[in-house]
């Protein structure tokens, strides 16, 4: 049974879903559930953004753990252009924030690469197969439970 | 003629940090850009039916560039925070963004006297218009519209929809006219700004 990152979603500035991908093979029903969870996560993102109105230097990109649901933990990341990256984790083990942040930064880099393409249309769903392949590579970097973080085998 | 190997970059080009040292940053040849830009304007002149359409198309191109520039710059500059204040984003455009695009910061940023939703950014010698002289018959046209489109793209994707127009202003001390960009923010932005101010105080 696969654990680790279950789902990656990119939401555009107008809260339009641009990309949602389940890392495990999923049925349509399962996709519906994922869409629903990501949609609820958007509310949590708004809440976090509104809470940070006070001190002006806390407009961070990484929003951290948004909220835990029954099976998943939801992490959020908000870029400067209001693009949100939502990550669903299936882990029960204690999560290292830095690992999640690393994956989110690489996803951001991938997104910037994709938008630098002059033929890319903003706001529309991302359908490039290269994007899919690179996303899989990035997700594979996230340590699965049972695999040691240092890369040594025991 | 010397044939040189293109420099190899070990990191992906997007991952390299913006460096303060100018010699490290890869740059595009100015003459190549000037040629390309002049060809593009000729292409547009053939296809556009009027001057305003010409300006519109040029501005649209700049808009697309602006969207991507903001995405790129805000990713590369690791300490950058998301801007919620109008002045912050304008200072960012005036400073780092102009520096990245044209190699120097813009020269002036000021707020208009009438109403606080209008701002002016001035550049004494805009790079894109440097090698272009507009004939009398095309008088209202300003090639700085490309830069205006870039600014509008950046403002729009940062969440500050606005109208940006470019104007030539001739100054007695200078040979070339100064390009002034008039930025007019939409009412929704001003409302949000007022709400933020109130929230900060109360």
TrEMBL record, chain A:
Gene3D superfamilies documented for this protein: 3.30.450.70
Species the sequence originates in: Volvox africanus
Pfam family, one: Sedlin_N
Family label: Belongs to the TRAPP small subunits family. Sedlin subfamily.
InterPro entries per the UniProt record, alphabetical: Longin-like_dom_sf, Sedlin, TRAPPC2L
PANTHER family: TRAFFICKING PROTEIN PARTICLE COMPLEX SUBUNIT 2
Name of the protein: Trafficking protein particle complex subunit 2-like protein
TrEMBL record, chain B:
Keywords: Endoplasmic reticulum, ER-Golgi transport, Golgi apparatus, Transport
Domain of life: Eukaryota
GO CC terms in record: endoplasmic reticulum; TRAPPI protein complex; TRAPPII protein complex; TRAPPIII protein complex
GO biological process, one term: endoplasmic reticulum to Golgi vesicle-mediated transport
Primary localization: endoplasmic reticulum
Spans through the membrane: none
Localization per record: Endoplasmic reticulum; Golgi apparatus, cis-Golgi network
Complex and partners: Part of the multisubunit TRAPP (transport protein particle) complex.
Family: Belongs to the TRAPP small subunits family. BET3 subfamily.
UniProt name for this protein: Trafficking protein particle complex subunit
Organism: Volvox africanus
Lineage, broadest ranks: Eukaryota, Viridiplantae, Chlorophyta, core chlorophytes, Chlorophyceae
